[in-house]
Amino acid sequence: MTWIFPLPNKNVTISSDLMSFKNIDLNISTEIPIHPHCGSFGFRRKHHTHEGVDLYAIEGSPVIAVEDGTIVNIVPFTGSSINLPWWLDTFAILVEGKSGVVCYGEIYPDYEANGIKIGANIKAGKHLGYVMRVLREDKGRPVSMLHLELYSHGITEPINLPVNAIIGETALRDPTQYLIDSLKYDVDVDIDDVVASVINVVVLKPEIKVDYYAQKIDPIENWLADRDINYKKSRPRIQTVRFHFSNNNDAETFRMKWVK
Ligand SMILES: [Zn+2]
């Protein structure tokens, strides 16, 4: 199963250096932290073991679902209402899908959007909410991020891991490889299900095939033309158009932006 990266329209790199955020613009970029980065999964912190992966992003960044699933809970995630007063009030949405239960933490759920409620079935790419500021004090580190956790099936409440927890004895799993893999492969995106204003297609392979509904291709073609990106178009089925991108584009990686 392949995930869609949960922060659309960001340039994504991988980092083990906890200060490398200083070298990127968090308005348009983020990093997947790996050990010994303090935002990596399972990192032993002073007061707890890190239950997820911190994807730094400016406050208000949209968050989308990594895969199809069912919303199994929407809960306060940090803050005084749940006795974690050293953090600001944030929320989490838990979505159970093929790979388990993904917890999108430290966000503001988009209650205005259709289908953001417990029990709702959602598609990959569904707009879930926005990154919220979580840290009270600015200590020179990012103060807002998507904190993403992964659990085995059946979990509906996030777990707080103590300092010496043995992660393998809990329902927590490591989402890091899913996030890294989401950068490498093309995905089938049903544009009609994307409520967020943008989606990403990251091209790392010589050729990538993306199917879009035929009636939606104009903005995509305009976007490609604006950037001098070469592509061929074919129509494998009546309802879809397939774009073939070739590697002679200068950029090794580019992102496709689609505005609904
Ligand atoms: Zn975190």
Structure description:
It contains two helices and 14 strands, in the order βββββββββββαβαββ. The chain is mainly beta. The protein has two domains: 11-182, Glucose Permease (Domain IIA) (Distorted Sandwich), CATH 2.70.70.10; 201-245, no CATH class. The longest helix has 10 residues, at 217-226. The chain starts with 10 loop residues before the first strand and ends in a 15-residue tail after the last strand. Mean pLDDT is 78; it is low at 185-216, 236-242 and 245-260. The structure holds zinc ion (ZN). Zinc ion (ZN) is lined by residues 50, 52, 54, 147. Zinc ion (ZN) binds next to loops.
Order of helices and strands: EEEEEEEEEEEHEHEE
Mean of residue pLDDT values: 78
Low-confidence stretches: 185-216, 236-242, 245-260
Gyration radius over CA: 19 Å
Strand content: 25-35%
Calculate the terminal CA-CA distance, rounded to whole Å.
26 Å
CATH architecture of the largest domain: Distorted Sandwich
| Beta strand count | 14
Structural class: mainly beta
**CATH topology type of the largest domain:** Glucose Permease (Domain IIA)
Distinct helical segment count? 2
The CATH class of the largest domain is identified as Mainly Beta
* Small ligands present: zinc ion
Q: Considering the protein shown, what is the CATH homologous superfamily of the largest domain?
A: Glucose Permease (Domain IIA)
State the shape: globular
Question: How would you sum up this structure in a few lines?
Answer:
The chain has 260 residues and is mostly beta strands. It contains two helices and 14 strands, in the order βββββββββββαβαββ.
